[in-house]
Amino acid sequence: MGAGKYIGRIGGLAVALGIGAAVFTGPGVAWAEPSETSSTSSTSSTSDTSDTSDTSDTSDASDASDGNETSGPETSKDGKAPKDAAASERRSNRRDRESQQQKQEATEKAAVTERGDDGPKTTSEPPASAAPMAEPERKAEPEPVAVPAEPTPAPVGAQLPTTTETSTETSTKTSTKTKPEQTVDPITVAVSRLVDAFVDPFAGNAPSGPVDSPVAWTMAAAARREFTDEAPKLDKAVDPVTMSLVAAEVEEAFAPVPVRAIPMTPLLQPLQQIPLFGPAFVTPIVGVIKAIPFIGDVLHPIVGYPLGWTGGSTPRDYKVISEDGTAIYVHFFPAWKFDESGKAPTILNGPGLSLPGETVPTAEDNPFLPNQVIGMAPLLRNGYNVVTWDPRGEWSSGGVLQIDHPDYEGKDMQAIISFIAAQPEARLDAGYLDPRIGMVGASYGGGIQLVTAAIDKRVDAIVPTIAWHNLNDSLYKAGAPKTSWGALLTAALLFTGARVNLQTYTAVFTALFTGQLPQRDQDFLDERSPFALLDQIEAPTLLFQGTVDTLFTLQEAHNNAIALQDNVVLKVVWYCGGHGACISSHNDGELIEDRTMRWLNKYVMGRNVDTGRKFEWVDQHGDEYESDEYLPPAGVPLQVASGQGGKLPMALLFGGSGPNWRAFEAGPINGLLGLLSGAYATNAVEVTATASQTTYLVGAPRLKFTYSGTGVAQHIYAQLVDTKTGLVLGNQVTPIKVTLDGEQHEVDIPLEMVAHTLLANESVKLQIVASAVPYQTFWASGEVNVSNIHLSLPTADAAAVIPSNADAITTAA
To answer: Which residues form the Xaa-Pro dipeptidyl-peptidase C-terminal domain (predicted)?
Structure first.
């Protein structure tokens, strides 16, 4: 039963790729795993009422407290001053207030217990399990009030767990980003509602969903429940609207508290301890399985770690209980060397979407993104503890995936950080439950870093890789849904059995069939975007972004950098990689590992390390350049203009941009990712710009033109092609909103950012095309007449461009 569910999901995940961020999501409900007792009855007996309270949490707490509960002292390990004295004082005052609140609630509880008319009497009522089937004399008594045995006040601004009653009131969230109103076609609204009804017939217009899931959802949840532990039953139904976090309340809402951590033992791990048999037979088998990239992580809850083969101390696994009761499957890897106190800083290493937490400590490279994320072994070898985890709603963790939402995945990370503070190997700072923390990870594992650093000041440094700024900007640019990526990533979630907010699927189908996203889906994407939280980040930040990333383009990192650069120590690196295929140059991962280790060694380990200049980028040849500024000072733009243009017949796919079959030159996985990239189009209006000398194109080109046309298409597209190689610069395609009403219109827009070097007499060709694979729709017709084209390519001042020489990382203390 247990082994089958993991093995059966491996093939699906390989097809679905398992990276990136979830796309086209909407404001659906967040469902927990179904409870064992009905919560819809309003006439239950006393025993039924107690079943619907938080007694399951209390029971699990008592189980975990048997030597398994972890908490951390409020002491400094190395004499380091508090990171924020004012914040430390606020937290101290806050704990005093909470202590007084606990005493007051205990007094009220005692008073309630004594009043026979307000609650059950502790001296006369039998236990719920011994209650008779029917007690007529009790029907006239008021409903008992369930009072927790040990009341724990929730942090200010946090939402208490929802009750089993359906609330008639809904809270609203004020948007932190003003956006112009967009008119959505009535057909889009109708299709969206129809898909809603098909996917989730139980979901209405209310923000909170039913407590019990439909049969299919119940079966899926049961299939994913890990056979070795019942902790996921702690999940509670929560309302994503009322739980929404307002950026202005982030600082006040943060109050670290000790968390429960339940030790977990993989199925085969005890067998390895059998004398002779275990070391001779079981451990080698486990070692072989763990050596298989990705598959070893998927099967980890069954096979565990090969004892003695992990490079250092044996890692250990836990279910860390998040604020809302969700159990997060966490792996703790002690460092391979410690300082004189026997402690080490800790690095949180987040996985990509649909991937389980990494469990191979001896891996020199990330098993799924080998040249884009640092491996676990270099971190452990350089004196860091490493923590990985299965994100909420995926693999062995409970809950519902909410796309790195601060109130869900963000709260999970706060619980994990508090858990780290209780580990004997963790170096602590002077704050309350404050371990020395750094973060790494790509895509989904990059987005969670921005969220966590914003809501939790205990994070000392972050290295977000190929993360996003605003999901609407990246996935619905100019009102054009990035449908190919939406379909691919939704398939990843489906094939891996992830528990996802159901509006994810309804929004994807709506976008595929109508080419639009309703405003409710756009609002939901905004809530899952870190742009509103960036001004809360204080940790030194190293941003990695891929020049060939077609899911989260360079523009996403640029927007993050602009928002962060005035508040934090910042460095930006553009490299050939990301959600795409690096086929114009070679990426061996050395740049990423070197810069990552330098950043962590300086801002987490506290060493005197040179982290380099503020901005570094790699061009299409693999040549590395640096600048003291982000972006480098501008040079004279490379421009071209044409008054002629041409006619562009609208056609689906044929003759348009992509698919990019050359992407498979980068290997099978990168080939699948790069297939969704731009490629040379045969149906296009073109102009060519030629450089007279060595020119560094760095930034966003600007395109202006005039057009008129008729038809039903809503977008045309623009891309730049290297005339020497025939490759689209950065694989990037930019959608352009058009109105085909027969009238003349003007367009003036920035294109996707690029990093490209032209030698003397080399050129790039602008193509305006009718269709593009990343934004593929099911319908388009008409004709567009394009004229008066003007293209301006941004250049860096050659005097400010410095060739980069990557030095080997120095690991000496």
So the answer is: 597-803
pLDDT band at 654 (very low <50, low <70, confident <90, very high): confident
Q: Is the dihedral of CA 772, 774, 780, 786 positive or negative?
A: negative
Structural domains in the chain plus CATH codes: 638-799 (2.60.120.260)
Q: If you average pLDDT over residues 708-733, what whole number do you get?
A: 95
Residue carrying the six token digits 């045969």: 682
Highest mean pLDDT among 144-153, 304-313, 660-669, 747-756: 747-756
Question: Mutual orientation of helices 503-514 and 519-527 as an angle, nearest 10°?
Answer: 130
Which residue do the tokens 């060939």 mark? 548
Read off the pLDDT of residues 254-266 as tens digits, 9 standing for 90 and up.
567 788 999 999 9
Place of tokens 């800083």: 345
Read off the pTM.
0.73
Rg from Cα positions in the chain:
28
Burial 692-725 (b: 16+ CB within 10 A, else e): eeebbbbbbbbbebbbbbebebbbbbbbbbbeee
Phi and psi at 808, nearest 5°, equal -65, 140
Nearest to 581 by CA among 623, 550, 536, 552: 550
In degrees to the nearest 10, what's the CA dihedral of 295, 297, 301, 303?
Answer: 60
Q: Which two tokens stand for residue 87?
A: 């914040």
How far apart are alpha carbons 795 and 638 in whole angstroms?
7
Q: Which two tokens stand for residue 160?
A: 């208490």
Query: What are the helix (H) ranges across 26-73?
Result: 46-51, 55-64
**β-pair partners for 704:** 748, 790
Residue pLDDT, tens place only, 306-348: 999 999 888 999 999 999 999 999 999 999 999 999 999 999 9
Q: Contact at 8 Å (CB) between 689 and 764? A: yes
Within 13 A of 121's CA, how many CA atoms are on the CB side? 8
